[in-house]
Amino acid sequence: MSKQTILLGTRKGLIAYNRSNGRWTVENLSFEGQPVSIAYSDPRSGTWWACLDHGHWGVKLHRSKDRGGNWEEVPAPAYPEGEEVTDGVPAATRYIWSMAHGGKHFLSKLWLGTDPGGLFMSEDGGNSFRLVESLWQHPSRKTGWMGGGRDQPGIHSIVVDPRNEDHVHIGISCAGVFETMDGGRNWEVRNKGLRADFLPDPASDIGHDPHILVAAPSNPDMLWQQNHCGIFRSTNGGLKWEEVSQPEGPARFGFAIAVADDNPDQAWVAPADSDMVRTAIKGALCICRTDDGGKNWKDLRKGLPQENCFDIVYRHALASSGDTVVFGTTTGNLFFSPDRGESWQTLNNYLPMIYSVQFTD
């Protein structure tokens, strides 16, 4: 059964759509006019979170326990005094790029990923956050991490293993994938098999640019990433990656990836033209789906614009739930599929730039 609410983080606010009697309507609009980098619903409690990027006023963090009816501001994650991104460059929270809950055994735990590359953890339900020093002090950080789409490194993906919630993978642009088995006390690099064409050594241990990292809900050992240099999959929890891009087709460069709830081999990506262009390929919007772990990809275009289209899909703006798939674009278009992408319907053409999409109850 697909979930009935879609939560959007956009350039001009948080927007919630709700489906009733087969029809999607706007349930809530919050923070109108304010950039919401991530809109996140904690499935354990139903709490909604809004990560705001005010620009002049900086990063703000709000939560709602009544589906956006009322919002409470909580202290945003802050770097301890004296911490530096690189020597002589003070560390300050510039952007909240990811959020994840700590699992059913740690009901008060939350994780936040930020630019400039800091991972934060709360153990009191988000009332306060502390920097995960073990990762921040990793010997590769100051010399091996760098900015990708942003000027400084950023943690955009946090994947908590539901079988063992001390087991967490994170994705960093640009550094790669890191893994902890002990709740963040120790970290291992998990970039074997990835390729970084932009580095002098494409097989370097550090410096890779995963655009998004996700785990298959039905098999958390199956990890997928849409990488700057292609689409990669791991069948052993990130110990080894294999490229599953199309050699000639559109399923190569992009930002977003989603994996089916019930099939670890079924995934969707949102292709874009090269890293230099970053628009829809040949002016035509498509989603690609694989049903066999990336051996083959199918273009899904029915109902999507096929000419004069400049849309791309940001890393958090593609999601699936049951047979339902939804994605939002940089030009404010929101598309919905009831049949795993075989056909698409337009929910709205006039939204702000869409940063994140999440299905929730």
Q: What does the radius of gyration come to? A: 19 Å
Number of helices: 2
Give the neighbour order of strands across the main sheet: 3-2-1-30
Coarse structural class = mainly beta
Characterise this structure.
The chain has 361 residues and is an all-beta fold. Helices cover 2% and strands 42% of the residues. It has two helices and 30 strands. It has helices at 133-136, 141-144; strands spanning 5-10, 13-20, 23-30, 36-41, 48-53, 59-64, 72-74, 84-86, 89-90, 95-101, 110-115, 119-122, 130-131, 154-160, 168-173, 176-180, 188-189, 210-216, 219-227, 230-234, 242-243, 254-259, 267-271, 287-290, 298-300, 318-321, 324-328, 334-337, 345-348, 354-360. The strands form eight sheets. The protein has a four-stranded antiparallel beta sheet with strand order 3-2-1-30, with no helix packed on it. The model has no long low-confidence stretch (mean pLDDT 96).
Summarize the structure.
By secondary structure, the chain is mainly beta.
